[in-house]
């Protein structure tokens, strides 16, 4: 059974900004589906169409068997939503926050009481039920936030960038909770992230989204296999300017017509070579470059990561974009609240 | 039915939040007391003017009640702004709650707090020697009048919060509206002492209807002709405010 089915789902914002541009995908019951892409790729906009917060410009989305445009009220009953912003009430206790959401889903007092206990255990906040949330740490708030999205035992939960802004240790903890959640509750999870490790570690299947379009989709293993082999990364002495460009040009010329090299991709001051059997390819590459008198600062061999997948399909790295893209995403987020 | 329970649980949340802000409660109790003590001193020399009746405290007490309600309700939108900014509103909108309850609960919670404040001010005024001509029934009628006034302003303020989205413009606009509506009324001075143009302008100001009638109830008795007029005008004002608030919610929050 499919929990989400979209058909040419599109959102165009004023100014003809195509935030989401005709995407098709399907999420099956019980799976963790990851939406991976850089900031501003259209991930949050997609979530907001699926959870009925905004209306699609065109296309359709059927969530838990219900069309989001025709019957949004029905969809809301079946889904949980954990937004990028931790939307918890700081002046209330953890229990009060959870209970209020229980009421929003029309649960009676007894059911809420029973579930609060279990949920606090699930997110490891037992003992903090009656503490005011303003005394919670960032990670605790996020965990409470996730619990609030689960109070009505939804079929499907949306987690929008669940670990953004958290320190690495807390991030790993949250991953554990999310992993447990899928196992313990059999819930379908739709997760967006711009962290490759997060998608790699949690998701059963991943859609890579960039500039509003899905550019690749599959299990993490399938996506990495699409690279076709290993990745050899060359770093030149100079990472910019004419010398750098000459390095790239000469290197590509030196390595052309070599059968073991499946493709090359240049980005962020490095040259990625997709090769068969990286361990034996590395010495061959060194020799070929030495023959041409090309000097390399560093060479590394790695199994393909999702970042390599992203690089292969877009010609850019997710990492390289983070610095500048964050502010843009924050602006978008502010805009999204409007 | 869902609408009522949704509203109720949110009202409970707002009130709980307010009660937990000790400083806020303290300020709101102390402030009217200061007004009641301070203003009669400042305006000592005017207490013998016509329309005041020799005792400025008696004249001012209804004004302080209306002023407190005016400012309290005019700032009501700040709470919603906080919820928008924290991402609480969009989270709520993704749940099945009835949309309208988000705004009605905020307005009702503001009203509850303002009615409590008004009753406290009346009590303090009586302790300070103010004599209420119409007694307890008059106070209840006064509460009805100021509730309508506050309803309109609170709903209007929430609508503005949805429209403006940022604290800076909201604070500016609220000040821009609340201060003149206070001074363009007979809160501080009886109508007959105001310049002609001001005396005319105040008849377009809902605040003035509230203060005139509450003052009648305290100083004179039941002046039914004015009272009916005030009830009508203030009901209309409340309706306008609610219409604006819900319209903004439909346009801006969905």
Textual characterization of the structure:
- With 338 residues, chain A is of the alpha/beta class.
- Helix content of chain A is 41%, strand content 26%.
- Chain A has helices at 43-50, 72-78, 94-104, 109-122, 138-148, 168-185, 196-202, 220-225, 241-255, 278-291, 306-314, 318-337; strands at 2-13, 17-28, 32-36, 58-63, 66-67, 79-82, 156-160, 188-193, 205-210, 213-218, 230-235, 261-267, 270-275, 298-302.
- In chain A, strand 1 (2-13) and strand 2 form a beta hairpin.
- The radius of gyration of chain A is 23 Å and the shape is elongated.
- Chain A contains twelve helices and 14 strands.
- In chain A, helix 3 (94-104) crosses helix 4.
- In chain A, the strands form three sheets. In chain A, strands 6-7-8-3-9-10 form a six-stranded mixed beta sheet, sandwiched between helices. Chain A has a four-stranded antiparallel beta sheet with strand order 2-1-4-5, covered by helices on one side.
- Chain B has 254 residues and is an all-alpha fold.
- Chain B has one domain (2-43, 53-252).
- The chains are: A alpha/beta (338), B mainly alpha (254).
- Chains A and B meet through helix 2 and helix 3 of A and helix 1 and helix 5 of B.
Residues in helices of chain A, as a percent range:
40-55%
- By secondary-structure content and strand pairing, the structural class of chain B works out as mainly alpha
Total count of domains of chain A:
2
Q: How many angstroms does the end-to-end distance of chain A come to?
A: 35 Å
User: How many strands appear in the DSSP assignment of chain B?
Assistant: 0
């Amino acid at each position: 059974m499919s929990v989400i089915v979209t058909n040419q789902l599109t959102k165009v914002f004023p100014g003809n900004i195509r935030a989401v541009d005709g995407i098709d995908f399907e999420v099956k019951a019980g799976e963790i589906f990851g939406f991976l892409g850089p900031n501003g790729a259209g991930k949050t906009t997609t979530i907001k169409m699926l959870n009925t917060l905004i209306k699609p410009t065109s296309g359709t989305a059927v969530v838990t068997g219900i069309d989001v445009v025709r019957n949004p009220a029905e969809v809301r009953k079946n889904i949980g939503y954990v937004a990028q912003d931790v939307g918890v009430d700081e002046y209330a206790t953890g229990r009060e926050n959870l209970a209020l959401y229980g009421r929003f889903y029309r649960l009676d007092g007894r059911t809420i009481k029973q579930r609060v206990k279990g949920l606090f255990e699930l997110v490891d906040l037992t003992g903090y039920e009656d503490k005011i949330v303003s005394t919670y740490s960032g990670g605790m708030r996020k965990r409470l936030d996730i619990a609030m999205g689960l109070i009505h035992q939804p079929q499907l939960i949306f987690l929008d960038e669940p670990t953004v802004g958290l320190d690495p240790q807390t991030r790993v903890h949250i991953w554990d909770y999310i992993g447990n959640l899928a196992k313990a509750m059999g819930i379908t999870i739709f997760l967006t992230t711009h962290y490759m490790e997060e998608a790699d570690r949690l998701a059963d299947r991943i859609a890579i989204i960039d500039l509003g379009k899905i550019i690749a989709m599959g299990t993490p293993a399938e996506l990495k296999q699409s690279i076709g082999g290993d990745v050899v990364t060359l770093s030149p002495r100079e990472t910019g300017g004419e010398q750098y460009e000459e390095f790239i040009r000469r290197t590509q010329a030196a390595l052309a017509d070599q059968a073991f090299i499946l493709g090359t991709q240049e980005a962020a001051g490095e040259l990625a070579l997709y090769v068969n059997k990286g361990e034996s390819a590395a010495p061959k590459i060194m020799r070929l470059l030495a023959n041409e008198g090309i000097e390399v600062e560093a060479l590394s061999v790695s199994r393909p990561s999702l970042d390599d997948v992203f690089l292969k399909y877009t010609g850019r790295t997710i990492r390289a974009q983070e610095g500048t893209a964050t502010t843009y995403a924050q602006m978008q987020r502010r805009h999204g609240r409007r | 039915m869902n609408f009522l329970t949704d509203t109720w649980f949110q009202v409970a949340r707002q009130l709980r939040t307010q009660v937990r802000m000790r400083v806020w409660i303290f300020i709101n109790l102390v402030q009217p007391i200061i007004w009641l003590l301070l203003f009669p001193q400042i305006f000592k020399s005017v207490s013998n003017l016509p329309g005041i009746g020799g005792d400025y405290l008696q004249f001012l007490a209804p004004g302080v009640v209306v002023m407190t309600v005016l400012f309290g309700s005019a700032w009501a939108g700040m709470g919603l702004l906080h919820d928008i900014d924290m991402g609480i509103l969009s989270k709520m909108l993704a749940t099945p709650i009835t949309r309208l309850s988000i705004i009605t609960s905020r307005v009702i919670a503001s009203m509850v707090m303002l009615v409590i404040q008004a009753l406290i001010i009346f009590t303090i005024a009586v302790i300070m020697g103010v004599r209420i001509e119409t007694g307890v029934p008059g106070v209840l009628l006064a509460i009805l009048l100021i509730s309508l006034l506050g309803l309109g302003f609170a709903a209007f303020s929430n609508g503005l919060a949805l429209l403006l989205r940022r604290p800076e413009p909201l604070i500016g606009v609220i000040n821009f509206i609340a201060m003149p509506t206070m001074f363009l009324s007979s809160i501080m001075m009886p109508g007959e002492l105001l310049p002609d143009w001001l005396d005319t302008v105040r008849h377009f100001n809902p605040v003035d209807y509230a203060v005139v009638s509450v003052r009648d109830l305290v100083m004179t008795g039941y002046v039914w002709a004015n009272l009916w007029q005030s009830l009508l005008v203030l009901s209309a004002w409340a309706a306008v405010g609610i219409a604006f608030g819900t319209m903004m919610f439909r346009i801006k929050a969905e």
